[in-house]
Write a structure and sequence with these properties.
By secondary structure, the chain is an all-alpha fold. Helix 3 packs across helix 4. The relative contact order is 0.09. The protein has one domain: Homeodomain-like (Arc Repressor Mutant, subunit A, Orthogonal Bundle). Keywords: DNA-binding. Belongs to the transcriptional regulatory Fis family. GO terms for molecular function: sequence-specific DNA binding.
Length: about 80
């Protein structure tokens, strides 16, 4: 499938997040969620960093610019997620 076709059929990221959260709440089966913000951010940050680093071909300066964070913050986050190869 071409990337153009995939792009047209892909849901916006917010819709994917909404769907995942709705499933999460249904799966709680009456239990009370805790620390949801930290959990969601923890789940999203790793693949975000990993994908941006691949897109930037390992160039941390470029990746930091894409993410809108400074390079030392990026290095810290890469280390936290064991992505500092």
């Amino acid at each position: 499938m071409s990337s153009v076709k995939q792009k047209k059929s892909a849901k916006p990221l917010r819709e994917s997040v909404r769907s995942a959260l709705e499933l999460y709440f249904m799966d709680l089966n009456g239990h009370q969620p805790e620390d949801l913000y930290r959990m969601v951010m923890g789940e999203v940050e790793h693949p975000l960093l990993e994908t941006v680093m691949i897109y930037a071909q390992g160039n941390q300066t470029r990746a930091a610019e894409i993410l809108g964070i400074n390079r030392s913050t990026l290095r810290k986050k890469l280390k936290e997620h064991n992505l500092d190869r």
